[in-house]
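Batch job 17 of 40 flagged for manual review because the log was empty.
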Amino acid sequence: MYGYKDNTQQNDKIYVLADTVSNQSCAVPEGKRIPFGWSAAAVGASSKEWVRLFWSVPVSDQPGYLRISVALDLREEVCVEVVTAVTSVQIGMLDIRYASVFQPYQLQLTAAQMALISSEGVELRLVKGRAPLWIFTEGPVEAPLLLPHLLRTPCESFNPWSRLSNTLASMSSLQPFGWLEGCVLDGLLDLEGAVGGGHFRETARKHIQMFFDKQGILRYENPRSEPVDGQVYGIEGTLPFAALAQLEPQHPALEKAIAFWLSERAEDGSIWDGAMLSAEGCYTIAYPMAVLAKIYRRVDLVDSALQQLEIRKNKLVCENALYLRYLSDGSRSFCHWTRAYAWYMLGFARTLRVLQEIIGLPEAILRRIDLLKRELARVAEEVMKYQSQEGLWFVYVNEPYTGVETSGSSAIATALAIGVQLGILDRNILSICDSARGSLAKYVTSDGILHGVTQNNKAGEELQRNGYRILSQMGTGLAAQLEAAMKLVKPYEVS
């Protein structure tokens, strides 16, 4: 059972927000924007750019974490030194690499360090990196994860899935509009379908409202923190329209998504990201396209959704190996990457689930759907060979030294569970999903965020292979999708 209200009270007690921020004012870089008009500060190398955080509430009884969250897109590796604000005692370093907006970072603290910090405050200094690191300093109290805070480590045991669902169903799970936020929105709506109660759906609605003005016009930033109001920034930016269509099927922005897809279609019907055809499109294009096809009863969108899956199957699969990207010169990259399987399989599973709900499709369309079901079964059989003893999948599924990766593992297991739900996969596969679910619980923080996620691939494959891991609301959304899928397919067995 999900005890949302009880867990809200519990989570409130473990967050201790910084109530004073001291820093020299600094202009946001030209062409960039802080989301929602929230307050942010720039942490730089000069003493004039050091940021100080202070607490009025003493914390002395338990260990925990210092947390900050990124407010502007980051395209480099930076390191932030944390020292106490009065006596300059060094507490530690925050290693922040290629971060996206809203990404939280944490530094583990002893009980003595927690007491010292809450008494003196801390000073943040950039010791590696070219440009200042922008962090959120003020925002809604409903999003404590995104504001500077101390996190108390609870002494009592807790249900990780209850905590995860609680945090997801809050403003702390906000992500940039696009594929990151889409994973969160789908997790919320999936939990609503599996659990009910209205709260998850209402939170999804609140999330979406953050990105639209009163006239229904999109107000947001692209992955580089550049304002792109009223536009669709790219193929990964259309995933949230699946949730929007389910919540507000008459919203005027839905036509923007359809117009974007139509404008980007190649002669064969495929939709590329510039010179690249990516596995992401199975999830970020085909799936929302299928949702709109169902709502608007448009067979042309059904046809286009199927084309996105069919063409990606033909271009991204080579000798049973799956690639994330196919380039116009015929080359491929990110072979056997976990999140390539994640986007490919999740896109297939979710798209097929929506299309199966549409009544009266032409026989030719149904035959194409059957072929795609076979492809989901094939790739499922292939990826299951690589499940680790821990129950998860490695960053590169065939390379154990790269370590397990939790977000891709969540999505793969979700796709498998949906495949069972649709009758495409055998029910005995649920044991694989159960194994993944059990192991993922170990990676849920005490306040309900998924850890063990590889960074976004802005820095290429090297960053994926080097063991670097982050906390992620996107990953939390994918884990919630698994939890919901398991509740739907095993309603009496998942607690």
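Reviewer: the log was empty due to a logging misconfiguration, but the result itself is present. The first helix runs from residue 4 to 14. Unflagging and moving on to job 18.
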